[in-house]
Specification:
heterodimer, A: 634 residues, alpha/beta, five-stranded mixed β-sheet, 25 helices, 40% helix, globular, B: 286 residues, alpha+beta, 22% helix, binds iron/sulfur cluster, binds FE2/S2 (inorganic) cluster
């Protein structure tokens, strides 16, 4: 393969950003100074081609340092990695956080998604745009969900430089966000993570002893006392909660301290796993009945509730083509979904341990942790946790002196909801455009770099810890992120079987509840009188009557139009037609809306039936439920 | 009924197509199995002998046990599969897909599309006059190839042909995402400023005519392109010793296009600039 890279050269800064990531170039073929003879062509051996997966980190390095990716910078990166520039351009232009044209060094991302819209994002945006107008250092970007929904409305400043600076403003005021955008270093620190986990807060306030290990049930720890009674709810006060296996350490341990993690039961599960051996670990996971939670932000694929996830993992483990891979996909970025962020910020070592266990069970020497580009604090803490664990022999060649080898590489996404899809995230890591591909073959058969790969979300992986320490029966809770019109938004851990109504009561739902969106943008709306059903999703947004429902449906449609990868016709064009129809009827109802409602139904059905991946297949759910259950245009 | 396969004998699988038992060799796609059984599904982005793009979603069928419909062009036959090719669901999806596509791009040079639109009763105008379309001027930045984004189905077959599944030139990629995504070279540069070697293979695989050779484009623009009147001859390229088969399309004693038979054992449908465009210099009488 002879590639042509053109004559564009990087600036010194751009060259430095790339070379710091990749190390100094080894030869002129790898992008060092060129001679007249080899100015335009370059040939890379296998070693260079194998580094294709560094394309996304390379694009981040440039975007972080300069704020955008110039032609010369891209050419330099491509020379270094032996990647065709057209393909690299295709990758760079896929992600919302990158720019291939010059822009101000500071980008202020203002969330305009569902929860933030209900919390006044439109006014915030307008205020920011007028305040920052004419300031050529800052540009305001209307962003899809930033995953800070419990503190809506949210804004995130990213200022390019060496190093890049970030500042989160949430709940954001115009004043605070302008300050963060113009001086990110002096912006106030975010509130502690446990503020986003109301149950953790309650436990601390009431002085309940911190659990010493996850299997609280068996150590006989007292259950936390009931939450204080709620004022405004129609639902009776919820019963006391059983112990919380997943949130047990959030707000209790110091997330930066490995010793503290171990003092709170950390690494007992891995020790037990090493005693059991991989096959027995898989058996316990299968026996627990654990099912994937991947549907929290991104439903699709085979029904994750249909079969125990352990069976798929076991199938991957038994495949002869090695090495196997493990990917933790924390890149799902659906509106209202922030569970992963809270878990990784509050208990980062738990994820390192859980990944180590699952990798051991499925025979993966290598794991990738794929994070959202918009969660700087989670990324910082996970990075630190991985480094500490490595330094202490809990990652690397000889974990706990047991001869088992495993390491974790952290990869940052760059703003693409579709990366919540399991084949898309693999392509993203490999350095290709994250377009989903048809399944089968499933990743467990043919995944990352063509090898059998287990792709799992954060919650599913963390579930493995209590299963191993408390036995298969210990697994019985699930996490839900709740935002919108409630007194105590945040991540809740509830016994499976809990109803939506109980959850809302616990979160302090406000009295003028108008609708609840269950399952995020890809989910469905339910009426306030329909909440008496077991919760089947990890994302709940409550809406009162202040934002007209047609606006919310339109926002959902805009979201899917923006996030469609564009690969298949029903989704690429269907999401556009859906948005157009909803825009036409945003102020209409009854006969004036009937034709468009019928059209929506026809297009929606084809999107659901004929789209290639879960994004398109679920892009009509919310609108359909809005029409049929809420009677939005009735 | 048995599906004949070329090459090494493969295990035969039993499955059901529209209620009829059929046997298909392992590794066969459902589309191939359907065609072998005499059922022709609409399939726009499928280019024979190429990796399926699975992008147009016209070939969707119902497979028992699968919640969504399944693209027949990419799904391999499995033993015991129960497949329905012509149901209310499949017809509905195909009709909507045709309407969506025809409402957003110019399909005037897409072979077969008019018949499908008729067959499925698609009405692309129902989305109204405000429906977003991809209106783009043809890109004419060189003497050999024309790119018309406004006709592109965005199946990516050209990208594959130019890249790892053909030329290994990697001049093309899809950029952007969603409705605004398009095929092109880095930073939307002209083709002459890219890695393109003007082999024209991308033109051969393009199912919509969004990519065309200049000679065809010019005749179409002049209104004198007359496909039924063209004679088609197969010959062997004399420019080098490889011996690629060429298909010459001749109109009024002039070669107006050169293609390559995709099943040719020598070239596998790939040519180079000399085979594809060399005739222009021979014909050039100036
Ligand atoms: S359904 Fe949408 S996101 Fe999924 S492959 Fe098709 S266009 Fe891409
Ligand atoms: S003419 Fe050949 S090299 Fe040029 S873009 Fe098409 S396939 Fe690629
Ligand atoms: S130009 Fe042709 S081959 Fe390429 S994506 Fe568009 S329709 Fe497909
Ligand atoms: S031919 Fe199967 S999706 Fe296009």
């Amino acid at each position: 393969m002879d590639l042509r890279f053109g004559d564009s050269q990087p600036t010194d800064d751009e060259r430095a950003a790339v070379d710091e990531l990749l190390g100094p170039p080894a030869s002129s073929w790898e992008g060092a100074e060129r001679t007249a003879e080899n100015l335009r062509y370059s040939r890379g051996g296998h070693a260079a081609r194998d580094r294709r997966d560094l394309l996304l980190p390379g694009l981040h390095a440039l975007n972080d340092r300069i704020g955008w990716i110039s032609r010369g910078a891209l050419a330099h990166l491509c020379r270094r990695l032996t990647v065709p520039p057209a393909e690299a351009y295709g990758v760079a232009t896929f992600y919302a956080l990158f720019s291939v044209s010059p822009r101000p060094t500071t980008v202020l991302h203002v969330c305009t998604d569902l929860t933030c819209t209900a919390a006044g994002a439109a006014a915030l945006c307008a205020g920011l745009e007028s305040r920052l107008e004419g300031d050529d250092r800052v540009t305001v970007r209307r962003a899809p969900c930033l995953g800070l929904c419990e503190r809506a409305p949210a804004a995130l400043t990213i200022k390019a430089g060496d190093p890049a600076r970030t500042a989160v403003s949430a709940p954001a005021t115009v004043e605070a966000a302008v300050l963060a955008a113009t001086a990110p270093d002096s912006a106030p620190e975010e509130p502690p993570t446990e503020a986003a986990a109301p149950q953790a807060g309650d436990r601390r306030q009431t002085g309940a002893p911190a659990p010493s290990s996850p299997p609280q049930k068996q150590t006989g720890l007292p259950a936390p006392p009931p939450l204080p009674p709620q004022k405004h709810t129609a639902v009776p006060a919820p019963p006391p909660l059983p112990p919380l296996p997943l949130l047990t350490r959030v707000g209790v341990v110091d997330p930066s301290s490995l010793d503290d993690y171990r003092a709170h039961g950390g690494y007992t599960a891995l020790r037990r796993a090493f005693v059991l051996g991989p096959a027995a670990v898989l058996r316990e996971i299968v026996d627990s009945g654990l099912v994937g939670h991947g549907d929290a932000a991104f439903p699709g694929g085979p029904d994750p509730r249909a079969t125990p996830i352990g069976l798929a993992w076991r199938a991957a483990a038994s495949r002869p083509d090695h090495p196997h891979h493990l990917v933790c996909n924390a890149g799902g970025s659906g509106p209202g979904a922030f569970t992963d962020r809270v878990l990784m910020e509050g208990d980062p070592y738990a994820l390192v341990e859980a990944m180590t266990i699952v990798a051991y069970a499925v025979g993966a020497p290598h794991g990738y942790l794929y994070l959202r580009g918009e969660h700087p604090r989670a990324a910082r803490r996970m990075r630190r946790a991985v480094e500490r664990a490595r330094a202490r022999g809990l990652l690397g060649d000889d974990i706990l002196g047991r001869g088992h080898s495993f390491d974790i590489e952290i990869r940052r996404g760059a703003g693409a909801y579709v990366c919540g899809e399991e084949t898309a995230v693999l392509r993203s890591i490999e350095g290709y455009r994250p377009e989903p591909r048809p399944t089968p073959p499933f990743p467990t058969q043919k995944g990352l770099f063509g090898r059998p790969t287990v792709v799992a979300d954060v919650e599913t992986l963390l579930d493995v810890l209590p299963i191993l320490t408390g036995g298969p029966a210990a697994y019985r809770s699930r996490l839900v992120s709740v935002s919108g019109s409630v007194e105590r938004p945040g991540v809740y851990e509830l016994p499976s079987g809990t109803t939506l109504g109980e959850l809302l009561a616990r979160a302090g739902v406000r009295p003028d509840l108008r609708a609840v969106l269950v399952g995020g943008a890809a989910g469905r709306f339910v009426r306030p009188d329909e909440v008496d059903v077991p919760l089947r999703s990890g994302v709940v947004i409550a809406f009162d009557g202040t934002v007209p429902l047609p606006r919310l449906l339109l926002r959902v449609a805009e979201f899917f139009r923006d996030e469609s990868c564009g690969q298949c016709v029903p989704c690429r064009i269907g999401t556009v037609r859906q948005e157009e129809a909803l825009r036409r009827i945003v102020d209409r109802a009854g006969p004036a809306a009937a034709d468009d409602v019928a059209l929506l139904g026809e297009v929606g059905r084809a999107m659901r039936d004929a789209s290639l991946c879960g994004l398109g297949r679920n892009a009509w759910n919310a609108v359909e439920s809005g029409v049929e259950r809420l009677g939005v245009y009735g | 009924m048995t599906v004949t396969s070329l090459g090494v004998p493969r295990r035969l699988l039993d499955l059901t197509l529209d209620g009829e038992p059929v046997r298909a060799p392992e590794g066969t796609t459902l589309l191939d199995a359907c065609r072998a059984a005499g059922k022709d599904l609409p399939a726009l982005c499928h280019v024979d002998a190429r990796t399926p793009a699975s992008a147009c979603r016209l070939c969707v069928v119902e497979v028992a046990g699968s919640r969504a419909l399944v693209a027949a062009c990419s799904r391999e036959a499995e033993p015991g599969m129960d497949v329905r090719t012509d149901t209310e669901r499949t017809r509905h999806s195909r009709r909507i897909v045709l309407e969506l596509l025809a409402s957003s791009v110019d399909l005037s040079t897409t072979p077969g599309i008019a018949e499908w639109i008729e067959e499925y009763g698609a009405r692309p105008d129902r989305f109204g006059t405000d429906a977003a379309r991809l209106e783009r001027e043809p890109i004419i930045d060189n003497g050999l190839l024309v790119r018309e984004d406004g006709k592109c189905l965005r199946c990516g077959q050209c990208v594959r042909a130019c890249g790892g599944q053909g030329q290994h030139t990697f001049a093309l990629s899809v950029s952007g995402r969603g409705f605004g995504s398009r095929v092109g070279v880095e930073y939307d540069a002209p083709l002459t400023d890219s890695a393109c070697v003007f082999c024209g293979d991308c033109v051969d695989v393009c199912p919509t005519g969004a990519l065309s050779v200049r000679s065809e484009f010019d005749l179409r623009t002049a209104g004198t392109w007359d496909e039924p009147a063209q004679a088609v001859t197969t010959t062997v390229c004399g420019h080098c010793g490889v011996g690629c088969e060429l298909t010459l399309h001749v109109q009024d004693n002039e070669i107006v296009k050169v293609t390559s038979p995709p099943d040719s054992p020598v070239a596998h449908g790939n040519l180079c600039i000399k085979g594809r465009f060399g005739h222009q210099y021979i014909q050039n009488r100036d």
